[in-house]
Amino acid sequence: xxxxxxxxxxxxxxxxxxxxxxxxxxxxxxxxxxxxxxxxxxxxxxxxxxxxxxxxxxxxxxxxxxxxxxxxxxxxxxxxxxxxxxxxxxxxxxxxxxxxxxxxxxxxxxxxxxxxxxxxxxxxxxxxxxxxxxxxxxxxxxxxxxxxxxxxxxxxxxxxxxxxxxxxxxxxxxxxxxxxxxxxxxxxxxxxxxxxxxxxxxxxxxxxxxxxxxxxxxxxxxxxxxxxxxxxxxxxxxxxxxxxxxxxxxxxxxxxxxxxxxxxxxxxxxxxxxxxxxxxxxxxxxxxxxxxxxxxxxxxxxxxxxxxxxxxxxxxxxxxxxxxxxxxxxxxxxxxxxxxxxxxxxxxxxxxxxxxxxxxxxxxxxxxxxxxxxxxxxxxxxxxxxxxxxxxxxxxxxxxxxxxxxxxxxxxxxxxxxxxxxxxxxxxxxxxxxxxxxxxxxxxxxxxxxxxxxxxxxxxxxxxxxxxxxxxxxxxxxxxxxxxxxxxxxxxxxxxxxxxxxxxxxxxxxxxxxxxxxxxxxxxxxxxxxxxxxxxxxx
Length: 539
Ligand code: NOJ
Known about the structure:
Blueprint: H1 3-8, H2 12-15, E1 18-21, H3 37-42, H4 44-50, E2 54-57, H5 85-97, E3 101-106, H6 116-123, E4 135-136, E5 157-160, E6 165-168, H7 183-198, E7 203-206, H8 248-260, E8 266-269, H9 275-278, E9 291-292, H10 296-299, H11 304-317, E10 325-327, H12 336-340, H13 342-352, E11 358-362, H14 382-386, H15 429-434, H16 439-452, H17 454-458, E12 460-464, E13 470-477, E14 480-487, E15 493-495, E16 503-509, E17 518-520, E18 523-525, E19 530-533
Parallel strand pairs: 1-2, 1-11, 2-3, 3-7, 7-8, 8-9, 10-11
Antiparallel strand pairs: 4-6, 5-6, 12-13, 13-14, 14-19, 15-18, 16-17, 16-19
Helix pairs in contact: 7-8, 13-16
């Protein structure tokens, strides 16, 4: 194999399909209404049958759970609610034995205020760990040092009466930001990475990686001229001095070099930035994040032309050699089935699994779980509690996995920590497995087709001009080529051979019928239908 071929050889994180598990909500094994690691182990068979290749677990480390695990009080242990280190080791071993990779959430931007580092830092101005966090004197006239806002409401500065200083928290006051300008902090987190990599984990999804470095001069953020009532209050300012600072690129490169000391591990960055800025996180010479999460589809209007434009912008912005990725849902955003509707959720699944790049599926999206209504007394999310009434709550997309029509959807024998929707008796894994045309079986078929069709994994992306609700593209690798035609509208459409010369056959329809139906010249799509064809389309 020559060098170029070796470089192009697709490694697992380019070939594979990622699946995000929100551990609190996947499977409870000890009857406390909260999911855990033994629960996940018991569901590895399901994940294997689904066909995914890598599991990313949201945080499982000791935490006061102010932000449900994104407030960590010990980076190198397992929270008892999720199990023990022995359970974790078993999970790694069994996942690997079934050919599944395991990725952990790394939360380096902030700790819990209960972390020993912060307890020590807070002790006094002279603490040896004082500079591990971001402490500032009050503004000259009193009050917070500057105008920076917390993403979860209010000032980002919390006053500490004992020492007369403020500390910075981009999220909750219980989540003080670490000072990433301090080399000791960097080394401490790199040691955490080495601890888990040494245990065999296959990589990290790094929480808010674009937040790590803040402006050295602590300048005020400028007002956002486009701020409208109804947006979360922190959006009143542009985060010019709190996120995406140039120096963060050095930190990402350092993290990457920690990872590169181990074989074939992946670095994924959580980054909410416009595409033009996002792609900077691949790093100089691609020595940054392997996969800066591409969230463009999370907020895209469900419109064929807009999505076509997003794909084009992304494809053009990618640095040479950078590998793309796509995401349709996560634990912070409304469920895709609720954003686009149940019918289009099938088209969305076909889009996600046929675009060029690594797809990440959010647990439950494969069975069409929708946003669950949360009554005021059931709200758990601190974002919703701090900023009520704007619809920012994330509980509705974090509800228990719907496994069966049994009590509590087979998730737990106890009352789950978040409610289940009434329709779980119908919309659950067991029922949908038995229905040949279900979204679950469509997802499995899409994954299986992707695996046996090299064009869908490594092939290039070629847009095909279309109008209205149609989104069409070809994926081609050498002599292997498929065309994906998606109808993002509810009305039927007919593609005539004058517009797009077609021949070949249908490999898969989102309706799960028409298999091997020949195409001769025209292709008719029903409303809300997507098809993958072996057709040769002259582009
Ligand atoms: C991003 C995580 O995805 C989100 O759930 C969390 O609340 C914030 N980071 C703060 O850690």
